[in-house]
Write a structure and sequence with these properties.
single chain; mainly beta; Immunoglobulin-like; six-stranded antiparallel sheet; 3% helix; globular
Length: 518
């Protein structure tokens, strides 16, 4: 009991320490945890814009991890503060759904659980917008199956008709699994259930088209590493399927032995850095990409790519590449792809630079994937916890339901202790200025390499214009200044050491960074 009280107190203190009144920030939440694979969380955005998170709390005991319970947190994206919390001891949440209740106010928590008699139940719980308490006496509990059933990632959905779509698996004696998909009313009424064919048993992601009559989709990659999208009708029967080719470009010139091969690195779900979004008959596919070139021996370049396809013909209509730290050592991960109501697209991704430092980048594009603005976000090692996996992302809305930006939430990891936590990433469309609290820096440009020898390379967001670049030594003396040709900055002839790079924009914003000259 003493361990539990100490842990809860520490978590609440950490919440206060990380509260910051800024327009965009990174909030790691640590706990004394064990294996990150045991970590579970869900994120919900309420109607008032607040986000609610539910995470498992555990303590490592030798090689084992003891689960103490789970904690609900409410987070305000406007002030980046934990506004409420609730610890529930000895409660081990399975995979479950957080969703707004379409019947009116409040929110839903849905999960599959054992019934104590060898079977499984579906439990539908409700909690209000004002507090995080669930009155389980008011839960709707529905017998689901008379033997063990398994849910999976993205196994639940509340559709636009206000029905609950549930996908679960049952195991047969020959160790084969059968995938069931069912439609329930929120009062527990079973409306329809069917079995999916074996070829679709483990399609990882489920969503709904913006169409009438209602259609649904599931997607996964196939054995050829292409993206396979199944379209299902309201009775969950497959009506069509589409294939997104993982090859972006394949060029070979035998005469001069030049070879270029570019491809998507599709994975099985959003958790694995592949995102699929539908938009008025088009499909947006985003994933890491790699480019192999025979012109440079053993050279492979990595980045992220977003492509728009016309769904009916699968003709590619637009393609955008993002690779901010060019070179064979760069690795990339997509964390967010969201479409706004007017067709603009938000993309948030991470890259590792040549020194294997992680950086987060946020981009807003128009419908043709032209970049409107880009923001580079550095999380220095002083924060310890880094965002390593994005579980959820969505559009940020104000109290009137107007879109104001995006959020990303997921798993953070302490590189020193390997303990997990939860991070929140908020980005609004308002004026974004530099944030230096706790060493976090957000800027409309990036620079590399660092450390550098002769030159720095700089890349700017299309919505800003640099005015002056200056370099100062540790005594605050100006040692170099540049008022044009802002894409490169000469460090030659300077003695080795640490300098302060100061970039002034035309609008008067000033950004400062430490640069090491080797």
């Amino acid at each position: 009991m003493k361990k539990i009280l100490i842990l809860i107190s520490w978590l609440l203190v950490a919440s206060i320490v990380h509260a910051q009144d800024v327009s965009m920030d990174f909030i790691p939440l640590h706990y004394t945890g064990g294996d990150g694979a045991l970590f579970q969380s869900k994120i919900l955005q309420q109607r008032d814009g607040n986000l609610v998170a539910n995470i498992v709390i555990l303590i490592a005991e030798g090689q084992n991890a003891i689960i103490l319970g789970n904690t609900f947190y409410k987070v305000s994206p406007s002030c980046l503060q934990f506004t409420d919390s609730l610890f529930v001891a000895d409660s081990i949440p399975p995979k479950y759904l957080f969703a707004q209740d379409p019947r009116g106010e409040g929110n839903l928590r849905v999960n599959i659980e054992q019934d104590g008699y060898g079977g499984m139940n579906l439990r539908i719980s409700h909690f209000s917008d004002d507090n995080l308490l669930i009155n389980h006496d008011e839960d709707v509990v529905v017998p689901l199956f008379d033997s063990i059933a398994y849910d999976a990632t993205d196994s639940y959905m509340v559709d636009s008709q206000g029905d609950l779509i549930v996908k679960f698996y049952t195991e047969h004696g020959d160790e084969n699994y059968v995938c069931h998909i069912a439609r329930y009313g929120l009062d527990g009424t079973l409306k329809y259930i069917t079995e999916l064919p074996e070829s679709q048993n483990f399609l990882g992601t489920m969503g709904e088209f913006e169409s009438t009559p209602k259609q649904y989709y599931q997607w996964n990659k196939n054995e050829d590493d292409n993206l396979l999208i199944y379209v299902l009708d309201s009775m969950f029967q497959v009506k069509n399927y589409y294939i997104v080719n993982h090859v972006l470009r394949d060029v070979f010139y035998e005469q001069n032995h030049m070879q270029v091969y570019e491809q998507f690195a599709f994975q099985s779900s959003n958790l694995n850095s592949t995102f699929v979004v539908f938009d008025d008959g088009d499909v947006l596919a985003a994933a890491p990409y790699s480019s192999d070139s025979g012109w440079v021996q053993n050279y492979q370049e990595n980045g992220v790519a977003v492509a728009r396809y016309e769904l009916r013909t699968m003709q590619r209509k637009a393609l955008a590449y993002f690779n901010d730290w060019p070179g064979p050592t760069t690795e990339s991960q997509i964390m967010c792809l969201q479409k706004t109501s007017n067709g603009n697209v938000y993309l948030v991704y991470q890259e590792f630079d040549a020194s294997y430092t992680r950086h987060m980048v946020a981009v807003k594009m128009d419908r043709d994937l032209n970049v409107l603005w880009r923001r580079y976000c550095y999380e220095p090692q002083s924060l310890k916890a880094e965002p390593v996996m994005a579980w959820y992302s969505g559009l940020l809305n104000d109290d009137d339901g107007n879109e104001t930006g995006v959020y990303v939430a997921g798993l953070s990891l302490d590189n020193q202790t390997h303990h997990g936590g939860l991070f929140f990433f908020f980005l609004t469309d308002g004026d974004i200025t530099t944030v230096e609290e706790q060493g976090i820096l957000i800027r409309p440009y990036m620079f590399y390499p660092n450390p550098a020898q002769e030159q720095l390379h700089l890349q700017y967001s299309p919505d800003v214009q640099p005015k002056q670049i200056e370099l100062y030594d540790l005594q605050g003396r100006l040692v170099r200044s540049q008022g044009k040709a802002f894409e490169t900055f000469d460090l030659g002839q300077l003695p080795a050491g640490t300098y302060t790079l100061r970039v002034t924009m035309e609008d008067g914003q000033v950004f400062s960074d430490n640069v090491v000259k080797e």
